[in-house]
């Protein structure tokens, strides 16, 4: 399983790190996940005792799918209803999630390689260094936030005695899951970009590329991305939307980089 990553300057010292949308992979993964507690128990009980980490991941994915379905239900609630108001609060909270966290969450553990696309004017070593930096920083930051969120779960669960939806508990539960996914994504990305002996550049000779048929890291300098980014220090919103269309990116995630402070 491979992924295409885009890296380019977006505003001053701010760089955008994002993965291209891969709908086929996400759909196949969701179809393999258990949808009921009975299916989950069957998979966990039938696995070997040594597959503890895989079982934990399976349970986490099961809870995440349930949370996504509940969120979809809130999204479809009639305007002005209590559920619709809760959905509005959730959107406000989600808008504070950093785009770097969204990027790291998009790196699954099944990934065997990445193709990094960047403007042709940038140095490949600099791009790889920035990728390693965001991966190393993410592994530290999200590990600390993950443990912090876990400690808050028992506290927020006490709000269950109130005759209202326990929004604080579900928010902390979501943040726990989100930080855990970002942590695993950081570790996987760091592993893929750290092996300097297996890097392939698209402009290398055919003889050299044949020596590494399936390298974990492919660096591709793109003239088209260079043209779309332009020479300015601040990429306009219009040009960002064009980049999203050409390279199949999530527009809302890219625009978040323009709104945050220098990373």
TrEMBL record:
Q: Does the keyword Metal-binding apply?
A: no
Please give the coiled-coil regions recorded for this protein.
none
Spell out the GO cellular component terms annotated for this protein, sorted alphabetically and separated by semicolons: mitochondrial inner membrane
Choose any GO biological process term that the UniProt entry carries and state it.
proton transmembrane transport
Domain of life per record: Eukaryota
TM segment ranges: 145-174
Q: What does the UniProt keyword field contain?
A: Membrane, Transmembrane, Transmembrane helix
Signal sequence, start to end? none
Quick check: keyword Transmembrane helix in the entry? yes
Q: Which InterPro entries does the record associate with it?
A: Mit_KHE1
PANTHER family in UniProt: K+-H+ EXCHANGE-LIKE PROTEIN, TRANSMEMBRANE PROTEIN
Name by which UniProt lists this protein: Uncharacterized protein
Give the organism, scientific name.
Lactuca saligna (Willowleaf lettuce)
